[in-house]
Design brief:
The complex is a heterodimer of chains A (438) and B (383).
Chain A lengths: L20 H14 L12 H15 L4 E3 L12 E2 L1 E3 L13 E4 L6 E3 H14 L3 E4 L6 E4 L5 H13 L14 E2 L13 H11 L1 H5 L9 E4 L8 H4 L2 E7 L4 E2 L1 H8 L20 H6 L7 E3 L4 E3 L9 H5 L4 E2 L4 E7 L13 E7 L6 H17 L6 H8 L1 H8 L32 H5 L5
Parallel strand pairs in A: 8-9, 9-10
Antiparallel strand pairs in A: 1-3, 2-4, 4-7, 6-7, 10-15, 11-14, 12-13, 15-16
Helix pairs in contact in A: 1-2, 3-4
Chain B lengths: L31 H5 L4 E8 L2 E6 L4 E7 L4 E3 H14 L3 E4 L5 E5 L5 H10 L38 H10 L1 H4 L10 E4 L13 E6 L8 H7 L2 H7 L5 E7 L5 E7 L9 H5 L12 E6 L14 E8 L6 H17 L6 H8 L1 H8 L29
Parallel strand pairs in B: 7-8
Antiparallel strand pairs in B: 1-2, 2-3, 3-6, 5-6, 8-11, 9-10, 11-12
Classes of the chains: A alpha+beta (438), B alpha+beta (383).
Chain lengths: 438, 383
């Protein structure tokens, strides 16, 4: 089909094996041109053709042609909509306004086709028909609509689909989680349930920006961290256990004997030689807490740090413990500004059980501190660095324990508090001088 | 195009308003076999690249076919996903954190027809619509940001760099022959909505020129104090400026040596654009991970300071990435992630083996963490 704009550069992204987003946008452009379903499009029918045109212009210039958005949104919310305008509206009127809506995805992104079709119907009629499945934080992202459509879309989402918007701006961002017990044997707690519960508990924080900057929760069911909570969330919930790894000795022997494929078959594409339990499991254990005597596997669980390696390698022989919960780490963020931060361990172990009161108390004590002390655009991790981990302990009421650090401090510059020193700091210089001449 | 009301009354926005209902409950969307066996899965196995079986305590099995997807996706494409899910999977499907799509069936005999159906569907230019893979010791889908399709501060395109990279690495998506999984991520400016800072390989867009100042408009278009406050390095201060016609206007001055090219000022103030054809391009980082397996999660390190934007397929960038993957695949031990390999052999050896040039840009000079990356020992390897 001949479209509005010639696109010789991006057309070159239509070959090769990997799916082509250019072909996909063209497909939508063609579908809108033909309009076989006879849809009364509420934004320009040629929106996708202009999107291809403006993208081609960027490929020509090596520069973006989008302006940042100004304030658009839906009534009563301060987040969920991101304004976007094209800097060549005369050339590409179909994308002159091209705002984004973030739709809060259901925990762990299982869908029925009925639900997805409803979203498609809505977005085809009232938007560009182009989405992100999904955005970086996890939302279903609707890419490109006009200002008058925002309230209409929100009305239909909430009334007809029973679905709310996600977060943007200085608020709680849409929480996300791994698929947990839905289809994973490693899950140490129900990530979906707590993700859903906290998302609903904190709707006000999610929709109405009142924080110094963004705040993210991510829920990983085990230390493999498939949703990258330790790197990408201000508060990371990582599944773990405090009893023993369950061992099926017969299955261990089956791995050793070559009847079971190590690492669930993950290395099947290359001949790595026969499985060697000593080399591949025992010697790679970071704490050296395992022993194989040729017929029995022993794990000194007291020394285990639950890195998951042995369980990943022999999933049919080893299972996570049964006294499960999560570790809570805080403060991760991408590099802006003071360099990237991982989350740091705050709570080594907590049970994850409804109604999650203890966890909510912890969250709220941290938020109170951050909202009081955080500077504009200061993430939690940066506040912890600026005011110190001790301050975090003060505000959360947690006791210092060695698990919180890799090692104790290597400088002695301890900021003693007055109440920690017998007699306090108020002293009488004249009394001192009785014994010490000037 | 006649306006169709949803029922919303702009005169009375609170009428029948529904707010703060959150997302739909996840359990509504579980296929029956998932719902029945929730939390009761015993083990899983990767049967072939992209195809997994999970076995529950009940003996039930669920077979999953994982296919790659562009995260940028049209409703026509989603409808096609739905058509496939209706045909083979009783109307259920899911998406992964890394933008893959998973089709699940509850018995083995349903796998082959689904697989054939998926692989038979191609786009007009011959690209797979639904490539099967992304499991085990291979490369899975690249998570990425918006780029030129939708963002105001990108230094490169996201979807295009990802398409070019995945085409070059396609065989690693559909096989499992690497020493461990290799996760690639892409962010189109240093603000990293995509948070690529802990990836085995990270593609990062980067500007190299400070913002220009549109003096004639800055005071009319911008809240100057907000632009000043937005600068993470305090490089912007208020200044008066004299226009060619002699008019004095309120503006800003940028201490260009302090600029880290983040574009936060441009976010606040459209009169401070920084995009530039020659200035903008790609940084490559490597060696990060998020898993706690064997050792702690790691940040990615900058291994190539700059590669120009070469539209539409970024050949220098993809060639460099492919070379890194090949050297890693040949040299690393089984289970060793990219960063674990580089640390074991030493980063000086990494540069020798990959042939990447080491320049002064790769030595950290940003604030306190820099010191901890210098070498405080006499131990090193000659290269």
């Amino acid at each position: 089909m001949e479209f509005k704009h010639k696109t010789p550069l991006i057309d070159q992204l239509e070959t090769g094996p990997w799916p082509s987003f250019v072909s996909d946008i063209k497909r939508e452009a063609e579908s809108r041109r033909k309009n076989e379903r006879n849809i009364d499009y509420q934004i320009p029918a040629d929106v996708c053709e202009d999107l291809l045109g403006v993208l081609e212009l960027s490929y020509e210039h090596g520069r973006t042609h989008w302006k940042h958005g100004g304030i658009v949104g839906v009534f009563g919310y301060g987040g969920g909509v991101i304004g976007r305008y094209c800097d060549q509206p005369e050339m590409f009127p179909g994308v002159a306004h091209f705002h984004t809506l973030r739709v809060n995805q259901p925990s762990s992104k299982f869908y029925t086709t009925k639900y997805l079709e409803q979203l498609c119907d809505l977005w085809e009629r009232r938007g560009s028909g182009i989405t992100n499945m999904h955005g970086s934080t996890g939302d279903i992202v609707f890419l490109g609509t006009t200002t008058p459509q925002l309230e209409e879309i929100f009305y239909e989402l909430t009334h007809n689909i029973g679905q709310d918007l996600g977060g943007s701006g200085s608020n709680l961002r849409t929480p996300s989680c791994c698929l947990s017990g839905a289809r994973c044997e490693f899950a140490c707690y129900n990530t979906q349930a707590i993700c859903h519960a906290l998302t609903n508990e904190y709707q006000d924080e999610l929709h109405r920006p009142a924080f110094p900057y963004k705040f993210k929760f991510k829920f990983d069911g085990c230390p493999n961290c498939c949703v990258a909570s330790i790197a990408r969330s201000d508060m990371s919930f990582i599944g773990t256990w405090r009893d023993d790894i369950r061992i099926d000795q017969e299955a261990v022997k089956a791995y050793v004997g070559g009847e079971l494929k190590p690492n669930a078959g993950a290395h099947a594409g290359r001949d790595w030689g026969p499985f060697d339990i000593q080399k591949e499991v025992i010697d790679l254990c970071p704490t050296g807490c395992m022993r194989w005597d040729g017929s029995k596997l022993e794990i000194n669980n007291k020394e285990c740090t639950r890195c998951m390696h042995c369980i990943n390698v022999m999933p049919r022989a080893l299972r996570v413990g049964q006294d499960t919960g999560c570790s809570i780490l805080v403060g991760a963020k991408a590099p802006i500004l003071d360099g990237a931060q991982m989350s740091s361990l705050l709570v080594p172990f907590i049970k994850v059980e409804e109604p999650y009161d203890e966890i909510k108390e912890l969250i709220e004590s941290i938020w109170d501190w951050w909202m009081e002390e955080g500077k504009n655009r200061e993430r939690l991790g940066e506040l912890i660095k600026r005011q110190g981990f001790q301050k975090l302990l003060d505000v959360t009421g947690l006791k210092a324990i060695p698990q919180m650090v890799k090692e104790p401090r290597s400088n002695p510059y301890i900021f003693w508090k007055e109440e920690e020193v017998p007699g306090g700091w108020k002293r009488d210089i004249n009394e001192f001088r009785k014994y010490h001449q000037r | 195009m006649a306006f169709i009301s949803s029922g919303y009354d702009p005169e009375n926005p609170m009428k029948d308003r529904i707010t703060d209902i959150g997302p739909r409950h996840f359990e509504e969307f579980f296929p029956p076999v998932i719902k029945k066996n929730y939390g009761k899965w015993l083990y899983h196995e990767i049967l072939e690249p992209g195809i997994l079986v999970h076995v529950a305590e009940s003996g039930d099995e669920v077979y999953t076919i994982r296919v790659g997807g562009c995260r940028l996706m049209s409703v026509s494409h989603i409808r096609e996903l739905c058509e496939i899910a209706d045909k083979h999977c009783d109307g259920y499907l899911r998406f992964t954190t890394r933008n893959n799509i998973e089709f699940m069936v509850d018995s083995k005999d349903k796998v082959e027809p689904l697989k054939q159906d998926l692989l038979s569907r191609k786009q007009p230019g011959g690209c797979y619509k639904f490539p099967i893979g992304g499991t085990g010791a291979g490369i899975t889908n690249i998570v990425h940001t918006q780029g030129w399709i939708h963002c105001h501060t990108p230094a490169t395109d996201a979807s295009g760099t990802v398409k070019a990279t995945m085409d070059v690495l396609f065989e690693e998506f559909t096989s499992m022959r690497l020493p461990a999984q290799l996760r690639i991520s892409m962010a189109c400016c240093l603000n990293m909505c995509g948070a690529v800072h802990c990836s085995d390989i990270a593609i990062l867009g980067y500007h190299r020129k400070p913002p220009m100042i549109d003096y004639e408009y800055i005071d009319k278009l911008c809240e100057i104090p907000l632009a000043i406050a937005a600068c993470p390095t305090a490089a912007i201060k208020p200044a008066k400026h004299e226009l060619p016609d002699g008019t004095k206007v309120n503006a800003v001055a940028v201490n260009e040596e302090r600029c880290m090219f983040c574009g936060n000022c441009y976010t606040m103030c459209p009169s401070m654009p920084l995009a530039d054809t020659e200035g903008d391009g790609i940084v490559l980082m490597a060696g990060g991970k998020v898993s706690n397996r064997i050792d702690a999660p790691k940040f990615s390190k900058v291994v190539v300071a700059f590669i120009p934007n070469e539209m539409p397929r970024w050949p220098t960038m993809t060639k460099t990435i492919k070379k890194m993957v090949e050297v890693y695949a040949a040299d690393a031990r089984k289970y060793e992630r990219f960063g674990q390999w580089a640390e074991r052999i030493g980063w000086e050896k990494f540069f020798e083996k990959t042939g990447l040039e080491f320049t002064h840009h790769l030595i950290d000079d940003f604030r306190d963490p820099a010191y901890y990356t210098w070498r405080q020992t006499s131990q090193f390897k000659f290269t």
